[in-house]
C-alpha cells in the first residue's frame, strides 16, 4: 500500500515588531492541525523557496507597502510561487472599526500595493488583510521619534487587535483548498 502524500507548505513572513510573526505562526499551527507539514520562517531567512507544494506569504504593511524583505522574497522566488498554490496576507490596521469615515471597509482600504502588483505575477489564490497590534512602548529606532508625537499617539491606538478567529478561518479555508483532512 502506498503512503499518503503529505503536502508541504511554507508560511514566510516579514514582521518588524512581532504582530505579523504571530499571525504567521498561528496560520502554521492551524495548518499543522489539519495534517499539513508546515514550515514558518522569516522571508529574509530563506533565499530559495523551492521544495514546497504551497506558499503563504505575509508582511506587515507600512504606508500601503509590504516590508522590503517580503517584496524581495517574492521577487527572488516568482518562478516557484507562480507555479504552485500561493496566498498572500498582510497585517496593519489598528482598532476595531469596520468602516472608515467615508463608509469604506477598513480591511479592504488597508490592502498593500503588492496585492495588486503580485496578482498577475504569482496568481495568488487569495489575499487577506488582518488587523495588527501596536504598543507605543515597544517602538524602537527611528520609529520612536514618530511614535512619541502626541498626534500619532492619538491616531494609533495601542493594543492587540488581531482577530484570531478570522485568522484561523482563513487558514482552514487554505487547508480545505489544499485537500487537508478535517
Automatic annotation (TrEMBL):
Entry-linked PROSITE patterns: FLAVODOXIN_LIKE (PS50902)
Entries under Gene3D superfamilies matching the protein: 3.40.50.360
Parts forming coiled coils: none
Domain Flavodoxin-like: 9-175
Pfam families: Flavodoxin_5 (PF12724)
InterPro entries membership: Flavodoxin/NO_synth, Flavodoxin_dom, Flavoprotein-like_sf, Protoporphyrinogen_IX_DH
PANTHER family according to UniProt: PROTOPORPHYRINOGEN IX DEHYDROGENASE [MENAQUINONE], PROTOPORPHYRINOGEN IX DEHYDROGENASE [QUINONE]
Protein name: Flavodoxin domain-containing protein
Species, as recorded: Agromyces humatus
Amino acid at each position: 500500500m502506498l503512503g499518503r502524500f503529505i503536502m508541504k507548505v511554507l508560511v514566510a513572513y516579514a514582521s518588524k515588531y512581532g504582530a505579523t510573526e504571530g499571525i504567521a505562526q498561528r496560520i502554521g499551527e492551524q495548518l499543522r492541525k489539519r495534517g499539513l507539514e508546515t514550515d514558518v520562517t522569516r522571508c529574509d531567512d530563506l533565499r530559495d523557496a523551492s521544495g514546497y507544494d504551497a506558499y503563504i506569504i505575509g508582511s506587515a504593511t507600512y504606508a500601503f507597502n509590504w516590508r522590503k524583505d517580503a517584496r524581495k522574497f517574492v521577487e527572488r522566488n516568482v518562478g516557484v510561487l507562480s507555479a504552485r498554490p500561493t496566498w498572500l496576507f498582510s497585517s496593519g490596521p489598528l482598532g476595531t472599526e469596520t468602516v472608515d469615515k467615508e463608509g469604506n471597509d477598513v480591511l479592504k482600504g488597508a490592502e498593500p500595493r503588492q496585492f495588486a502588483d503580485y496578482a498577475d505575477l504569482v496568481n495568488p489564490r487569495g489575499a487577506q488583510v488582518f488587523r495588527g497590534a501596536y504598543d507605543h512602548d515597544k517602538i524602537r529606532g527611528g520609529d520612536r521619534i514618530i511614535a512619541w508625537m502626541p498626534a500619532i499617539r492619538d491616531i494609533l491606538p495601542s493594543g492587540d487587535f488581531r482577530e484570531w478567529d478570522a485568522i484561523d478561518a482563513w487558514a482552514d479555508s487554505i487547508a480545505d483548498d489544499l485537500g487537508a483532512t478535517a
